[in-house]
From TrEMBL:
UniProt-recorded name of the protein: Aromatic-L-amino-acid decarboxylase
Coiled coil regions, renumbered to chain: none
Cofactor(s) needed: pyridoxal 5'-phosphate
Biological process (GO), any one: amino acid metabolic process
Record flagged with keyword Lyase: yes
Modified residues (N6-(pyridoxal phosphate)lysine): 312
Keywords assigned by UniProt, alphabetized: Decarboxylase, Lyase, Pyridoxal phosphate
InterPro entries noted in UniProt: Aromatic_deC (IPR010977), PyrdxlP-dep_de-COase (IPR002129), PyrdxlP-dep_Trfase (IPR015424), PyrdxlP-dep_Trfase_major (IPR015421), PyrdxlP-dep_Trfase_small (IPR015422)
Amino acid sequence: MTSGQFNSAATEAIQDITNYYDNITDRPVLPSVAPGYLAKLLPTSPPTEAESWDKIRADMESKIMPGMTHWQSPDFMAFFPASSSYPGMMGELWSAALTVPAFNWLCSPAVTELETVVMDWVAQMLALPECFLSKGKGGGVIQGSASEAIVTCMVAARERFVTRTLMKDDTVLTEEQKEDRSAEIRSKLVALATKHTHSSTHKGANIAGTRFRSIDTQLSNAFALQGHELRATIEKLKSQGLEPYFLTVSLGTTNTCAVDDFATIAEVKKDYPDIWIHVDAAYAGVALVLPEYQHYCKHFASFDSFDTNMHKWLLTNFDASCLFVQNRRDLTDALSITPAYLRNEFSDQGLVTDYRDWQIPLGRRFRALKVWFVIRTWGVEGLKAHIQHHLKLSDLFNSLVGSRSDLFTIITPPAFALTVLTTLEKANANTKKVYEIIDQGKKVFLTSSLVGEAYAIRVVSANPLASEEGIRKVFGLLVEAAEQVLEDKA
Ligand code: PLP
């Protein structure tokens, strides 16, 4: 494809994309294809001869679109949203155009330096404590996902725990003895989370090769982890000869957007400073742009790391998981390995940041561009208004649900534009039937979940295109389905 051909093809693609967004509500949010549909439409072998772009372009609509779930549709209220915006897309386009896997500063100084600047901006926007900014010992790095951020921190936590334990022992060890002793220490390590923490912590522990234990939390506390529950777990594990070394606390769990009790957990951390505490704020963290949520931040100075996905709720296209650490040395001590081919005078002199040492992969995308474009296009005030808009829609939904207390119960306090509800009568069986009616209707996409013992329906009003009309639509569908289920029973 020549630059002239690219110009025409890209211009058409932009038209197709804007048409897609302008008319997205004409498409059912969920596809109706059967598994394996695409293989039947495509040749089994790659084309021998070059194909025209026009032919390729036409296949987007005829072959790909039927198999798409439209996450950007306002009828998508499932899981958590995956934000998209035109400035975010422009960042992606430029990133693809430049294609620089800038693992070291020298690989493209602008990639590293923009990331440092915008991550400091994000930290300030979210009112994170100063210790997470790059001017001190801390700093931020853009990861691909909240799961990747957790496993990265877990590996750093594991190695920090091993090093600190070795340092407490005065015995002089040979390199081989040190390695054996380190392996012995690692074999006792336990990562912790609650039963409601996202499964990425369990997966992280599997990858890091340590044990994992989950702590029970109570419905009466809206499933938020309390300091005394954590302390009891730590003491029990230690009495068994095991060593808790990592804990994920949540600002917004996946099921119900529960927020763990940071104040009492911070008290426990004082007695167990070697346990790395990571704040998983994958979805809800960006709500910290609003002053009314910033009271949570004061406790974060007691914790080691914080991560939020701008790609979930803050208008930035996938992927932009913003990880902040208090001490960047914790990451680089665990992850920095410098063979001769990666050495250069700037890195050797310690003058620059090499983000390859803050992450698992070597190469990295130019993700800071889209973050920069989004923040500049909206400004902090615009981003606050964006979150506020969704919170207001959620208030509307909650008041509508409250007006039909004969049909529905909200089972945990609505939070961060998420409502979790069940039907009133024969809750589990009927809620499941209501969910199935909604799911089969394909007019909106919701998710169901098990919250404690309860089968529940989650409604999220944080999609970039969410609107009052959409909120009234989903409520109407829920009422219709619930009434049908109750009538069928009568
Ligand atoms: N943490 C929470 C609270 C989540 O809700 C999710 C996903 O929805 C994750 C972590 C994992 O996110 P990612 O897909 O970025 O790994």
